[in-house]
Amino acid sequence: YAKTKQGDKIQVFNNALLNTFKEDAQIERDLQTALRGREFELYYQPLKDLKTRTYIGAEALIRWHHPKKGVLYPGAFIDIAEQTGLINAIGTWVLEAACRQLNLWQHHQIDISMHVNVSARQFFSGNLFDQVWNLVSRYRLQPGSLILEITETELMEDIDYATNLCTELSELGVGLAIDDFGTGYSSMRYLKQFPISKLKIDRSFISDLTVSRESREIVSAIIAMASALNISLTAEGVETKEQEDFLSEHKCHQAQGFLYSPALRESEFSQFLFKSNHEMIH
Ligand code: C2E
Ligand code: MG
Ligand code: MG
Ligand code: MG
User: For a pocket test of ligand 1, which of 61, 115, 150, 236 has the largest count of ligand atoms closer than 8 A to its C-beta?
Assistant: First the structure.
């Protein structure tokens, strides 16, 4: 009897695993089609400067218009893309699309910086610098207007390589932001070692602000550290006025979150900027 039960369990486990494999394999095939078609789109989430109360940046976030499944968020496919190596092709597309858009904004005197997420595989691919160099010159991007985001854990995979690449990028005028700051295993040492222009405090600290004294202490300490090291700071996942008030009072530079806006399609994003700036002036 026990044996049968055990067998049942294994059976159930196998089916679940098999289904996951099948789904992943399907997504992999669909991703290849998506790359050839026009199924990806960048959405832009505004970044607010808490001092001037204006919007000064955008984070490009990829969305996939899947022919059968509708709009898919990166959580549904980025890991698979990373495992299969398809992330390199996707990342190349993302960088190109983001820089093309940034060039259009600059052409229309829209003074906004563009944040682009870069995956570890892309970062260590060996041709990120060439890619970025090409885009910056081809689109004549203003120095400082392009910022690459990478997580601390990813950055630490190869410290020497990362240090060199970050230095080269910063000489080109391209910023580097540590994404999800505070969630990795890395030490504070790299803040001294890498030419980092920005930290993005992870959403988990922000969502806890009003309930956890520890989170308030951690966020205040990060703000103090960033300002002492002259590194710009963005709080991610700001959803309430209370959170914004805390961040403003403690002189956090920028905020990003649903309190202001989710990521928007380009046309909506431009309208959002126009409307907000208009409200600021009047
Ligand atoms: P991330 O870079 O930390 O981006 C922030 C994520 O938090 C986004 O999710 C955004 O929609 C979400 N978010 C923003 N404000 C709020 C808020 O107030 N509350 C909550 N609950 N969430 C908020 P999204 O777009 O689903 O992206 C998830 C992750 O996927 C990103 O995390 C990033 O690591 C990755 N990703 C997105 N686009 C790309 C891309 O083009 N390339 C690569 N390699 N990764 C990407
Ligand atoms: Mg990011
Ligand atoms: Mg990220
Ligand atoms: Mg993040």
Answer: 61
